[in-house]
Design brief:
2 strands; two-stranded antiparallel ribbon; about 325 residues
């Protein structure tokens, strides 16, 4: 049930879309850190995804009106699958990143999460049953694992809380990659905007329930939220969940999927730069040693993908949206 792209693939537009995904998703890690300064993660993500879900649904209706088509209602099975995948992605993936950043700097979070494509390769063997990775891809995954090991190796100043944060980030990468891989073998709505809208609304509702149960969302917590956290929440909603997602979803219709996934190579670099510049985070020598190892590993893994794994041009799979809401 593929859907066709209706936007011409002009070279300048492709470059602009790549830059949008690279820069905006790289900046969301710092935005999350600013957001959780005075806003509990459950409240930040509940508001972000509920509003983004409404915006994406409005965009879905607008695109259908522009095409002169009547929106087709998804089946109950498709809605159920989108809800399950959305909760696993957004709560198990993005939400755990937010909770982890209470004790882990944003640039470290971005570096650990950059291992996601390596996890996807392992999950694909389980769900999608793709061919075994080539030697260069295996070498890339090995380099990535070594880089992550260097990054998270115990240090004298490490605390128990930072160790918990790192564990949450690794679990977030596992949840995100597992859901992304599983989405390729389950039935989801045809339109990527509709799928993402359902996923975001489901994730936002789940965060609302979790926040209420955990006691994070109360009248007093909402009243105590500072202006920088509110601005961060709006930035994540409009740019992280709507603008960057739309650019990503469109790129999947005109570019090979493995090439689009190169955002995982660039986002950590953006996160490190912004974390040091705007967040005044300390960038230690271990980070600079781990970054090239992870980057080279991901480059070998993603950029040497065999042709059988590439998505045909001008076609986007029904499940393309599920790998989008990274930041």
């Amino acid at each position: 049930m593929p859907s066709q792209s209706v936007i011409p693939a002009a070279p300048w537009l492709i470059v602009l879309a790549y830059l949008t995904v690279y820069v905006i998703w790289g900046s969301t890690y710092l935005a999350i850190r600013f957001g959780i300064e005075t806003m509990p993660p459950s409240l930040l993500f509940a508001e972000r995804f509920l509003m983004a879900g409404v915006l994406n649904f409005a965009l879905y209706r607008a695109v259908n009106a522009w095409r002169g088509q009547s929106p087709r209602a998804p089946s109950l099975i498709q809605v159920r699958n989108a809800v399950l995948i959305g909760c696993l992605l957004l709560v198990g993936g993005t939400g755990l990143v937010g909770w982890a950043e209470r004790t882990v700097d944003s640039h470290l979070a971005a570096l650990i999460i950059s291992s996601t494509p390596l996890w996807v390769a392992a999950w694909d063997q389980r769900f999608v049953r793709r061919r075994s990775a080539s030697w260069s891809q295996v070498a890339g995954m090995a380099l990535g694992v070594i880089g992550i090991a260097v990054l998270i190796a115990p240090a004298g100043e490490a605390s128990v809380s930072s160790g918990v944060g790192i564990a949450l980030l690794l679990l977030a990468a596992c949840c995100w990659s597992g859901a992304s891989s599983a989405s390729h073998v389950i039935d989801l709505p045809r339109d990527v905007l509709l799928t993402s809208s359902i996923q975001m609304l489901a994730g936002g509702a789940a965060f609302l329930i979790l926040g209420a149960v955990m006691g994070e969302i109360t009248v007093s917590t909402v009243a105590s939220v500072g202006p920088r956290s509110w601005w961060a929440m709006w930035y994540l909603t409009v740019f992280g969940s709507t603008v960057a997602f739309t650019a990503f979803a469109w790129l999947l219709t005109v570019e090979p999927a493995h090439r689009v996934a190169s955002y995982a190579l660039v986002n950590p670099v953006v996160a490190v730069a912004l974390g040091a510049w705007l967040g005044h985070e300390t960038v230690g020598p271990r980070v600079w040693f781990a970054l090239p190892l992870i980057g080279l590993g991901l480059a070998l893994h993603l950029l040497t993908a065999d042709r059988s794994r590439r998505m045909p041009r001008a076609i986007v799979s029904d499940s393309s949206s599920v790998s989008a809401e990274r930041g």
